[in-house]
Design a protein that fits this description.
Low-confidence stretches of chain A: none
Radius of gyration of chain B: 22 Å
Strand order of the largest sheet of chain B: 2-1-5-3-4
Helix content of chain B: 25-40%
Oligomer: heterodimer
Number of domains of chain A: 1
Strand content of chain A: under 5%
GO molecular function, one term (chain B): metal ion binding
Cofactor (chain B): [3Fe-4S] cluster; [2Fe-2S] cluster; [4Fe-4S] cluster
Structural class of chain A: mainly alpha
Mean pLDDT of chain A: 95
Order of helices and strands of chain A: HHHHHHH
Protein name (chain B): succinate dehydrogenase
Distance between the termini of chain A: 44 Å
Bound molecules: protoporphyrin IX containing FE, iron/sulfur cluster, FE2/S2 (inorganic) cluster
CATH architecture of chain A: Up-down Bundle
Shape of chain B: elongated
Order of helices and strands of chain B: EEHEEEEEHHHHHHH
Distance between the termini of chain B: 62 Å
Number of helices of chain A: 7
Pfam families (chain B): Fer2_3 (PF13085), Fer4_8 (PF13183)
Keywords (chain B): 2Fe-2S, 3Fe-4S, 4Fe-4S, Iron, Iron-sulfur, Metal-binding, Oxidoreductase, Tricarboxylic acid cycle
Number of helices of chain B: 8
Largest interface: A-B, 35 and 38 residues
Shape of chain A: globular
Amino acid sequence: MSKEREFLWRRLHSLLGVIPVGLFLAFHLSLNFTAVGGEQAYNDATGMMDKVPPALLLIIEWVVIYIPLMFHAFYGVYIAFTATLNNKRFSTFRNWMFTLQRVTGVFLVVFIAWHIFQTRIQKALGAEVEFNMIADIVANPVMLGFYIAGILAATFHLANGLWAFLVSWGITQSPRSQQIMTYVTAIVFVILSIVGVAAILAFV
Amino acid sequence: MPTTANTGRMVKIEILRQDTEGGQSRTEKFSIPYRHGMNVISALMEIQKNPVTEDGKKTTPVAWDMNCLEEVCGACSMVINGRPRQSCSALIDQLTEPIRLEPMKTFPVVRDLQVDRSRMFNALKKVKAWVPIDGTYDLGEGPRMPERKRQWAYELSKCMTCGVCMEACPNVSEKASFIGPAPLSQVRLFNTHPTGAMNKDERLAQIMGDGGLANCGNSQNCVEACPKGIPLTTSIASLNRAATVQMFKNFFGSDHMVD
Ligand code: HEM
Ligand code: SF4
Ligand code: FES
């Protein structure tokens, strides 16, 4: 990756984290939340996807999810590993958020890869994505734990990422505005976490 | 109050030492007589007078840098009990013992506690952290600076390139090219200056290049660590906004002029 273009790559990384990856995550968790209404409600909601022509769906998947996510994830791993964590010496709140942003990011690479393998790749291999597919996965308590960890990592990463995004683009400048956004993004984290975890527990 | 009387109390100091650049490092322990009002530098001078370790072994005097002795030059910075700060203003009475001294390893260690801060000075050159006024003729007076602007710009001008914020930053290291918080904040300072602002696009172009502004990951350690209380994170966020605008100007603008 050209070093001269580093600024643009970093800004692109930041933007893609929110649009479309962050938006997709919010949409994805909300759709899963329909499982709280029962098996039928979930299958009806996800069944809407089947109404989209398969070729179009595939294009949307690549353009809106895979390509931006892969760029963000792989560049994110590079960013994460060029940091030298120093929370022992500087144990401030923000420095912990800095570390957690990187730790959750690296964990998400593993989680998302596994999650895609268990769902999207199985679908490509002929399996049907519906309520029982997920129910079978989380019937294993270890998998349930792994999924909850993955959901919380993602919601944290998005919420704290939103905070960072606002600074990276120069929207929040004053310490006060940054502090207020800390509270706002904490609320985003809590709400998305409740939606996400309630959804996965609905499959148990 | 007796200032030099020997109280019999001893001060324990551990120093991470290294003889050559890139060489092996080792910890040496010292125990030196306490004096009232002592600071880390006077403790190091005590060791220099009598370079003998705690268990009686003769060693070489410890090397360190210093200059102003009043926390304005930045030369004497080192990591004291885990925190990067100036050794001339670090009072022994306010430190828990054993006092551990380490060099700021984010910079190349020259010897013992001496580090090479060239990286930071080179970054200041790179971002043109000055107001260019040299011409072939007298350019006359520059525009006036509003007083309220001068007041906050003065805060930014207090930077003494001590390197403490660089040591505190998790993204500044040998393995990354990030120029670090101090040079960035200087860009904001010189882009604020009415004459300096005449070249603000050139400075922005520099920090929008390799190792620049976008490498900040918002750990905000710099602002916690800076001994001069410089609002580094506000500077960075403010430059982020300026860079966002500049990015669009570069692409959509009719030319690349300042305004
Ligand atoms: C669920 C999917 C993900 C979402 C929604 C997401 C979202 C975000 C957002 C919004 C940001 C803030 C951008 C900024 O700092 O301006 C961010 C930053 C970051 N992301 Fe992600 N991300 C995801 C996955 C990943 C993955 C898989 C990695 C891999 C390690 C990763 C690594 C990073 C890193 C290191 C940063 C910090 C960048 C910096 O502060 O300079 N992210 N992410
Ligand atoms: S900004 Fe503060 S910590 Fe950083 S070099 Fe300047 S004075 Fe030192
Ligand atoms: S000797 Fe100048 S800051 Fe300490």
